[in-house]
Design a protein that fits this description.
Layout lengths: L3 H6 L11 E3 L6 E7 L2 E7 L10 H14 L5 E5 L2 E5 L4 E2 L2 H4 L2 H16 L14 H14 L8 H15 L5 E3 L8 E3 L4 E3 L6 E3 L1 H12 L3 H12 L5 H28 L6 H21 L1
Antiparallel strand pairs: 1-2, 2-3, 3-5, 4-5, 6-8, 7-10, 8-9
Helix pairs in contact: 5-6, 5-9, 6-9, 7-9, 9-10
Length: 291
């Protein structure tokens, strides 16, 4: 089987010989920086990932729509298993960046535009991302894969059921659904939102909960985020529904990592990532149950 770098080198797209350079940080795909004819590109190599419900047709459609909205780089080329994007000369953010009020004030409008504007440009079939379905499906995958974490599943699935009931009926928007800090780029002038592997129709509470939990926002920042997003004062009912979805976001990230431990070939310490996210979920669910 052709290795990813060789595959990128031999693409007919290039005008001359290229020397793909690996980009660090990807934990779902293998990514390269390619320079050709004076331009630079990011090349994402990855097939469908059924265990994570990742479908590349969906990533492509979301990437194109996000570029049309102006929140993500342009799609230059695609072919099965490969997506070529314009390169944004900037740095990926860390959680401490997004906790800075001036950066968070730039990041939240990107999420709003994703939710409210991106669907206007979306073409073709689109997926839904209902976190509680994902959690249940991950449970089956972990059981079938004889995961060492399988013993935890009954209790985790029971908690997920309580969280789903607490969330209740939801508004539907088109979500990014993976608001890790590294999926925000800062080019020195503005922020960009990248990596649409998990994009799909969802509750806005999931992206808001993910933005908060992945970047460990302070409670006052969460209140500001919710009031700014919904354009109204925060009440107890919304706060509780949001907190339930925030817990679900942490649980999904934990189970994602457990599944990746037994299914991913990418060189990444998934076991440590599982332990970190499980501890954060346990702290969050304890706080939720005591509230």
């Amino acid at each position: 089987m052709t290795d990813p770098r060789s595959r990128v080198m031999t693409m007919a797209l290039w005008q001359g010989a290229v020397d793909p350079q690996p980009l660090s940080g990807g934990i779902t795909n293998v990514n390269f920086l390619v320079e050709d004819a004076g331009r630079r590109y990011v090349v994402r190599v990855g097939e469908d990932i059924p265990v994570h419900q990742v479908k590349r047709f969906n990533e492509l459609a979301a990437s194109r729509a996000a570029a049309a909205v102006g929140i993500s780089p342009a799609v230059v080329h695609h072919e099965p298993g490969v997506l070529v994007l314009d390169y944004i000369d900037g740095r990926t953010l860390a959680a401490e960046d997004l906790r800075r009020p001036e950066i968070l004030a730039q990041a939240l409008p990107l999420v709003v535009r994703c939710h409210r504007e991106l669907p206007k440009f979306l073409r073709g079939p689109a997926l839904a991302f209902w976190v509680f379905h994902v959690i249940r499906d991950y449970g089956w995958t972990l059981k079938e894969g004889n995961s060492p974490h399988a013993v935890l599943l009954p209790a985790l699935q029971e908690l997920a059921g309580r969280l789903e009931a607490a969330v209740g009926p939801v508004e539907i928007v088109f979500g990014h659904n993976d608001l890790l800090p590294a999926n925000f780029l800062d080019d020195g002038t503005r922020l960009w939102l990248i990596d649409w592997d998990y994009a799909g129709f969802n509750s806005p509470l999931f992206d808001l909960g993910g933005l908060a939990s992945n970047n460990e926002l302070a409670p006052a920042q969460e209140d500001w985020m919710l009031e700014t997003y919904f354009e109204r004062p925060l009440d107890d009912a919304l706060r509780r529904r949001y907190q339930a979805m925030k817990c679900a976001s942490l649980l999904r990230e934990t189970l994602w990592s457990m599944v990746s431990e037994i299914h991913s070939d990418i060189d990444f310490d998934y076991a440590a990532y599982t332990a970190e996210n499980l501890a954060r979920f346990q702290a969050a669910i304890t706080e939720f149950q005591q509230s």
